[in-house]
Write a structure and sequence with these properties.
Shape: elongated
Structural class: mainly beta
Radius of gyration: 15 Å
Strand order of the largest sheet: 1-4-8-5
Number of strands: 8
Strand content: 35-45%
Length: about 80
């Protein structure tokens, strides 16, 4: 099942795939890949966590201008269920 979802956060979140699967009589939500505007991944992550979703935003350390900062591993994407 596919769905497109847009929320009121200024980040334009679009859900690429959503689904349910039954596992021993229990319904488990699958992970959903979310596309965000550039450099808004953390803002969308915070919003979704406040709404009660489980969110995964993988990050990596990168050296920029002599200091180390953490950036999202997948630019413009995060995962939620």
């Amino acid at each position: 099942m596919s769905a497109t979802h847009s929320c009121c956060v200024p980040c334009c979140v679009v859900c690429m795939s959503v689904g349910d699967e039954c596992y021993k009589g229990k319904v488990q939500l699958q992970w959903c890949a979310l596309y965000t505007k550039p450099r808004k991944e953390r803002q969308v992550c915070s919003f979704l966590e406040e709404e009660g979703y489980k969110v995964y935003l993988p990050t990596i350390p990168v050296r920029r201008r002599g200091r180390v900062v953490t950036v999202p591993f997948f630019s413009c994407y995060l995962f939620a269920r």
